[in-house]
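Archive record
______________

***
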Amino acid sequence: MENSILNLKPSNVWKHFYALTQIPRPSGQMEEITAFIEEFGKKLGLETSRDAANNICIRKPATPGYENKKTIILQSHLDMVPQANSDIDFDFSKDPIQAYIDGEWVKAKGTTLGADNGIGVATTMAVLEANDLEHGPLEGLFTIDEETGMYGAIAVRPGFIDGKIMLNLDSELDGELYIGCAGGADVSIEFQYEDESWIPQEDVAVKVSLTGLKGGHSGVDIHLGRANANKLMFRFLKDALLTYDIRLSSISGGTLRNAIPREAFATIVVDGKDPYEKIKEMVAGYEELFNEEFKGIENKIEFKTEFVEITPELKLIPKAIQTRLTHAIIGCPINVINMFAELPNTVETSINMAIVQSSEGKTEVKFLARSSSESKKMAVCGSIESIFSLAEADFIETGNSYPGWDPNPQSEILAIMEKVYEEQRGEKPKVEVMHAGLECGIILSNVPGLDTVSFGPTIKFPHSPDEKVEIASVEKFWNYLTAILKQAPDK
């Protein structure tokens, strides 16, 4: 079934995208994909470089008559977000993505597709390989580990790229050109303790599972009002803690810093079978409540209980810790903090409670804050720090802060792109500022003076197993990009 995408147009883009689906490339596992891209450039006979961070740059000379054009950098990232539904047996470290056509879209079976940013990578490969295009000098810049911290972009330095114009191919809505984006920062919290091992013989262990949420990209989808699995789980836990004096054994919600958590699981211990029946009723009540609250936003939310065997390995989080943790999480803001006053319908600042994870002797909580305002970004991080400071967390740190990208409405390449778009489609494109983080701001901070615009085909629900890319928009994207390259400004 996955081979059917090879029949799509433009075939030169889809063949490279198919090749990418066969190579494991979750963030942090870049060895095979960087070797593949490096070998690709060398086989074409093009100058191919690798920097200390393992970013790859492939240079292609201008076609005859276009030598006086400014060098354009085509930039995309090689890694993808590894998210799979809980009922799918899939190993992102070795299994190929199973891409297939579903009507007007390409999707993947139960996992993220990797169109973010695989379509950008595949399109750059097609441009570098093509011998029937007209363009000035080109550089294909392929960065690593964008999804986990933009580490490749952070390492880019002058000289590794020489171009004066950079087209970032990592946006996700056809017809929109992005000239700015939010910056971000991680807030990491840790509660440390000694697990308690004594559990009364009459107690019962119960696993509570919250599943079925849509999740999504914590920048692109944060304004949609989707449920955060961690927040919903702790609403229930607070009620159960106060009503039935439950004990928390473990908690696991969310897996990625930049994805809205879709699932959360908790193991709790209750005093005997009769309270279990009441907990079961409480869970059923919350399932009904959550579905009512998120009607029209989420698919059916499932909230279930099941007995778990009490074994010697099952431990309890100390009661004082579970109380402080629960109240802190309930007290934290999530989702949109504020919108731009001057840009209607555009998020300025947000916070995503991405991960809550317990393991032996500790529970970790991780947030990703985003804002186009550096001061507001740090202010929302400070509010999270204060809440967990009051909860007496053992470790609180704000780190991995990266800058936003300030808009330049007078951009020379933007004017050309608007002109080409009107010529092709008879209307003006939308010029926007994106709330999601792009590598542009980081690369610009390292290589000042780049004239930069970001654009791409339509990709829906990135960072979730619902990810899909619109087939028709990929062909439009290709035709638009190649026309822009032909009309690049002179040096």
